[in-house]
């Protein structure tokens, strides 16, 4: 079964087709696992969300292989509402724009792997459709509408993170030598929750260390 939930199957399949090159092996069997793409000695996995589900698999594969993890972030999104029979009722563009820094929402599940010399992460900035249908099982927050699929419309850009130092690009200029997660949030225009995930990840990558405390908040500094 493809990695990811059923509502992500269309996006997952489309990204696999978009990324594949002639000679790649699709759905390759390696070390007891099904791999999305095998390109020579490199194993390529596509994960739209829930990185924690990959922890055991990636840890095992990195013992012997180079692994590249692809993660799409919707830079542009269209919300499509359908009847329970699949008829399109409306389509509108979401005002929200996904940013590459959102990768930390998922990377927080396995930050130590980002420091592995055979691991790389590639973020694909996408244009997508999010398909919702009315009926049972819908979220109360969405007033009964349930997200049933995500569809790829285009890939607008890509960012590669081949080594821990690449993630330091998200640390905003002007940070003091010692700073808190709140300082990071304010300096980068991030939410405090995202900034806390960033400091957690960057510590596990060896890019930040704890230098002390300011009141009850940890103070961080960059490592050499």
In N-to-C order, the SSE pattern is: HEEEHEEHEEHHEE
Distance between the termini: 43 Å
Number of strands: 9
The value of Rg in angstroms is 19 Å
Mean pLDDT: 91
Spans of at least 5 consecutive residues whose pLDDT stays below 50 are 1-8
| Share of helix, binned | 10-25%
Largest sheet: 7 strands, mixed
Number of domains in the coordinates? 2
Describe the protein in words.
- There is one protein chain.
- Helix content is 19%, strand content 39%.
- The protein has helices spanning 9-19, 55-61, 104-107, 181-188, 192-204, and strands at residues 25-30, 33-39, 42-46, 66-82, 88-93, 119-134, 145-161, 208-214, 217-222.
- Helix 4 (181-188) packs across helix 5 (192-204).
- The termini are far apart.
- The chain folds into two domains: 6-162, no CATH class; 170-224, Arc Repressor Mutant, subunit A (Orthogonal Bundle), CATH 1.10.10.
- It has five helices and nine strands, in the order H-E-E-E-H-E-E-H-E-E-H-H-E-E.
- Strands 1, 2, 3, 4, 5, 6 and 7 form a seven-stranded mixed beta sheet that branches.
- With 224 residues, it is α+β, with helices and mostly antiparallel strands.
Relevant terms:
seven-stranded mixed β-sheet, globular, 224 residues, alpha+beta, Arc Repressor Mutant, subunit A, 2 domains, two-stranded antiparallel ribbon
């Amino acid at each position: 079964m493809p990695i990811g939930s059923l509502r992500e199957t269309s996006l997952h399949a489309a990204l696999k087709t978009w990324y594949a090159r002639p000679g790649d092996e699709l759905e390759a069997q390696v070390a007891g696992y099904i791999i999305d793409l095998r390109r020579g000695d490199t194993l390529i996995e596509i994960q739209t969300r829930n990185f924690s589900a990959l922890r055991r698999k990636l840890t095992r594969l990195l013992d012997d292989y180079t692994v590249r993890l692809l993660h799409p972030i919707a830079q542009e999104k269209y919300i499509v509402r359908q009847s329970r029979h699949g008829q399109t009722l409306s389509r509108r563009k979401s005002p929200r724009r996904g940013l590459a820094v959102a990768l930390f929402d998922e990377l927080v599940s396995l930050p130590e792997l980002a420091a592995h010399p055979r691991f790389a992460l590639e973020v694909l900035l996408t244009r997508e459709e999010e398909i919702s249908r009315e009926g049972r099982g819908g979220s109360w927050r969405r007033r009964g509408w349930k997200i049933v699929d995500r569809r790829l419309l285009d890939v607008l850009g890509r960012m590669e993170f081949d080594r821990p130092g690449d993630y330091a690009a998200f640390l905003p200029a002007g940070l003091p030598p010692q700073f808190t997660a709140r300082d990071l949030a304010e300096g980068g225009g991030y939410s405090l929750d995202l900034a806390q995930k960033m400091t957690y990840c960057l510590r596990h990558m060896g890019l930040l260390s704890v230098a002390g405390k300011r009141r009850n908040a940890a103070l961080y500094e960059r490592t050499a």
